[in-house]
Amino acid sequence: MSRSLAFDSELASGKPRSARHDPCPFCAREQLTDILAEEDDRIWLKNKYPVLRDTEMTVVVETAAHEGDITNYTPAAWQRILAFAWDKWQRMSAQGRFRSVILYRNFGPVSGGSIRHPHMQIIGLKAIDYMQAVRPSQLDGAVLWEDGDVRVTLSDDPVGGFHEFNFRLEKERSLAVWADRIRELVCHVTSPAGGTCDSYNLFFYPAAQGVCKVVPRGVTGPLLMGYGLTQAPAAAEQERVRRELASIWGGQRGE
Ligand SMILES: [Zn+2]
Hints:
Blueprint: H1 9-12, E1 35-39, E2 42-46, E3 55-61, H2 75-93, E4 100-107, E5 119-125, E6 141-146, E7 150-155, E8 165-169, H3 175-189, E9 200-205, E10 210-216, H4 222-227, H5 235-249
Antiparallel strand pairs: 1-2, 2-3, 3-5, 4-5, 4-9, 6-7, 7-8, 8-10, 9-10
Helix pairs in contact: 2-3
Bound molecules: zinc ion.
């Protein structure tokens, strides 16, 4: 089965880009069309530039604030945003029209995003089940934090990044805890203490009630580009990360 999505370059050429200082389409809210759902200032709508063939592309606009991000939302605001996006992802997945449904989020100059305004993308794939190429071990790893419903791990079998943090939600009732741990990690990796990373992605997978992988981004390594080879943190680096995160998660499992 092919794992390539056909990309429409002609359609893409019309897309607005924040790097080019194009006007932000998500700030001009009265001009948005094909809205699927709204809740407070959150909007789920069809992507105006569906550049991937054999897909249905939708966007979750997280807030009316152009400069919003996980790092400046209140914990409650991010909980509501994540719950809204998670619900729409579940809803699209349950429709039965797609082989698989992707939920992901870009932030920063090397994350692959083109619009600064905080948003997530939910994409239904009609021909590809992306989970066929994802190993369970890639969504797990050394435990950094856990309670009964949420487990946070550092990948020792990453999909494509170096430090990949997996947030596994076992019970829907703990969606707020899941949101909190994700927010704390993003705040940490973008802070001076965590390396001042300026770009990251969130990738979601349909395992348990949902696995969110947070990937701080840098330049993509050549061994991955050329050979599909990933590089995982060695034991000493895993231990260093575990100790670093103990400063925000209390040094022990659970609360
Ligand atoms: Zn905007």
